[in-house]
Design goal:
Elements lengths: L4 E5 L8 H10 L1 E6 L7 H15 L5 E3 L1 E3 L2 E2 L12 H8 L3 H17 L5 E2 L13 H4 L7 H17 L3 E7 L15 E2 L3 H6 L3 H5 L5 E4 L3 E2 L11 H9 L6 E3 L12 H11 L4 E2 L5 H11 L4 H12 L9 H11 L8
Parallel strand pairs: 1-2, 1-12, 2-3, 6-7, 7-9, 8-10, 9-11
Antiparallel strand pairs: 4-5
Length: about 325
């Protein structure tokens, strides 16, 4: 059995170049990720997804960040404009679970129609008084039990729409007072407090097929960012009980120090299954693919289990779902 490359990679534009095709055929990444620069029209996105799958010769997972609010790659006029998740939860109040299911069932329909079969959400980081602004309105609330319930609704909506959820940011990003895109956040709370709050939603959703790490230091447990910490990765597997495929958050984020190849090797050695590299040159993507090599036996098994979790979408009446969601949220509409 040929093992997949231990990477998730992106492309430069609307279609693959000849050089990208050759590179992806050789590297055979586990999956791909799309960004705004890859999005023009529906037909173009479908063609790009087909390019990617043709390059590796299999039905490779293709993911995207489509949380809604500030973090959504598909935007009007062709696709819906979504409010921030926390805003949507607040509007729905006691109906937030049903509203979040409907929201992400509709998002899944948009993605699946384009050939995108994974979404980097639910985000079950628990918000607090000091949560950095880059993250806060992307969260679902401040109570870990309710965050877990809403995260489950998000995951179910995606799965019923034929889209794999990616649970993030394991083991919890909510206490970060810095933006990990720019700096390394350090969390000082003790292990017991983290277990009771931050880790709890991830434990409740530890059956999901894929997860994404947090580039945070949990100083009471280890002095290394979770993504490159064997101690934290073991905690994720044993204490949180997550046995799905674990991808890094983007290894080009400034929270992680060192070369991309050093970070790649450190993350995989720590226990991540695949390295996610975004917004890099082709030369950097080659170097990371070489450093990552192929999935080991355990990672390969988790990769295949994740892919087997993909479902055929359930039949739904999209206008009826839109109307129901709008009614739950005080008449909120979705511009296109």
């Amino acid at each position: 059995m040929t093992h997949f490359g231990a990477t998730i990679l992106d492309a430069e534009g609307y279609r693959l170049t000849a050089e990208e095709r050759r590179f992806f055929a050789a590297a055979d990444p586990f999956g791909f990720i799309l960004f705004g620069r890859n999005i023009d029209t529906a037909d173009q996105v479908r063609a790009l997804c087909a390019d990617m799958r043709e390059a590796v010769g299999r039905d490779v997972p293709i993911t995207i960040d489509q949380e809604g609010g500030r973090v959504q790659r598909l935007r009007p006029p062709q696709w819906r404009q979504w409010s921030a998740p926390m805003n949507h939860v607040d509007l729905a109040g006691p109906h937030a679970g049903e509203a979040m299911y409907l929201r992400y069932r509709l998002i899944a329909a948009e993605l699946h129609a384009l050939g995108i079969d994974s979404n980097c959400t639910p985000l079950v980081d628990v918000a607090g008084a000091t949560t950095h602004d880059f993250l806060r309105d992307r969260c679902y609330g401040t109570d870990p039990a309710r965050v877990a319930l809403l995260g489950r609704a998000v995951a179910d909506g995606l799965l019923d729409g034929g889209v794999l959820p990616v649970l993030k940011h394991i083991p919890g990003h909510g206490r970060a007072q810095a933006d990990s895109h720019l700096d390394l956040p350090i969390v000082s709370e003790g292990h017991d407090a983290l277990t009771a709050c931050d880790f709890a939603p991830f434990q409740a959703l530890n059956d999901l097929p894929m997860g994404m790490t947090a580039h945070l230091v949990y100083a009471a447990i280890d002095d290394r960012p979770a993504t490159i910490s064997p101690v934290m990765m073991q905690l994720i597997r044993d204490e949180i009980g997550f046995d799905g495929l674990i991808m890094t958050d983007d290894i080009s984020m400034k929270a992680l120090k060192g070369s991309l190849t050093e970070i790649t090797r450190a993350s995989l050695t720590a226990g991540c299954d695949v390295a996610l590299l975004c917004n890099a040159t082709l030369e950097d993507r080659r170097a990371v693919a070489d450093a990552a090599g192929r999935l080991d036996e355990a990672g390969q098994a988790r990769a295949r289990a994740a892919m087997s979790a993909r479902r055929t979408p359930t039949d739904v009446d999209i206008p009826a779902l839109e109307a129901k969601l709008s009614a739950l949220c005080g008449g909120l509409t979705y511009g296109r």
